[in-house]
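**User:**
Make up any protein.

**Assistant:**
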Amino acid sequence: MSKKAVLVGCNYPGSQAELAGCVNDAFMIKGFLTEYKGFSDDDITVLIDTDDSYTSPTGANIKSALTTMCSGSQPGDVLVFHFSGHGTQVASDGDDQEDDHKDEAICPTDMNLLVDDDLKAIVSQIADGVDFTFISDCCHSGSMLDHSAVQIDGPKAGGTGQHLPEPSSLISFLGGSRDIDPEEVGVKSRELKPDLVASILSQKLGRTVGTRDIRSSLGSIFGPEASQFLSILGIGGSGGTGGAMSSLVGALSGGGAPAEPPSSGGGGGFGSLLGQVASAVGGDSAPATQAAHTPTTSAPPKPDPLSPDKGILITGCQAHETSADVRPPGGDAFGALTHTLVTVLKENPDGSYIETVTKVRAAMVEKKFAQNPCLECSEINSEKAFIC
């Protein structure tokens, strides 16, 4: 039996999409796994975008690391995948697998989106008899694996309807210090809105760009590294670059007025990507050559639904909700789900999944977080001890 983990933290440094706690989340989970669950450092692959000594969490790198872990698994192995960063939703292709007609997606640091079908296709490679846990601390994380069996979902008992908690409600959560000014506690959604992408692109191009103007560029730039299911979502139609992203970005944007150029610069993997996008749209020769690849109009069939026994998904929220990035003054930022989950687990590291998520939801009520963490897996898996 072997233990393996892939931990991803995307802070999107230097960009308008920047978050503060996602990289910290990755190391928080790593610390828990090594201290409480018998993982060694060699068992854990960390992908972050704030330190060049680590592998960058681009879409291609995340897929590669996760595929290597899943495809090489053997019965009895224990696998963990943790993603902390932005999440979003895109319109599905109208199949019957998505009740809300939307596919959930995680946002790597380079914005090479991984939709839920990408994740299912990779997870389906896991050998029978493997314990696989996916912790998704991002917006729209519910139903990320489209499990047919869900043990905990819906609103929390005693929950609040407000989108994000009032800063004052987090004081006790942060240790109850009277020296903390509630107004200095920052809480930000981990939802990436398409007008933000357009705003950053506006700066790269030096002119105002509306959300509709970026429809063609992203898919063409990533070429074969883009989601294999993007053409199912409408990417790769006729018209070359002009048709490559029209369906996806249109679904993300829902139209809207042009975004104003931001005043701050981009950076990191996210900024680098948008620089390529700007060059492709603006006509610079080298990036345009890279972007000349037109995704195929055909695509592999959607993966079959996962067996309820194939993996356990713990989400930061329901599919239509957002998750919080918390920034306490003078302290380390974190994701609301990851911090609460680790806090609960340190009190009872071997509690069952259903017991653990139930306690996490209760703690969320106390902190007045509106997000509703869910547990998506079979009943049998829900009763197992956490990552054992």
